[in-house]
Amino acid sequence: MADGPSYTAGYRAEAADFAAASGKPIAQVAADLGINEKTLGRWVTVRKKELTNHPVAAAASACASSSPRTSS
Fold it and tell me: pTM for the full model?
């Protein structure tokens, strides 16, 4: 059994989403959150796969990329 801390699935997903949306390097976000860099990187990879394979997320992504953008 692992000796490190245990994180809930919700926390892992939120941390991964935050890291992906922040635009910061994984190493910086991991340090800010107090998480191992490799651990957070793995969470981000898993989360991206989850979102890619999720039918609602895939549809939302397709709609967002095809919607016209207007400028004010």
Answer: 0.69
Alpha-carbon distance of 72 to 68, in angstroms, equals 13
DSSP output for 10-63: HHHHHHHHHHHHH-S-HHHHHHHHT--HHHHHHHHHHHHHHHHH-HHHHHHHHH
- CB neighbours (10 Å) of residue 7? 14
pLDDT of 62 over the 70 cut: no
Task: Please report, rounded to a whole number, the percentage of residues in the chain having pLDDT higher than 90.
Answer: 60
Average the pLDDT over 2-31 and give the result: 92
Give the Cα separation of 4 and 22 in Å (integer).
Answer: 25
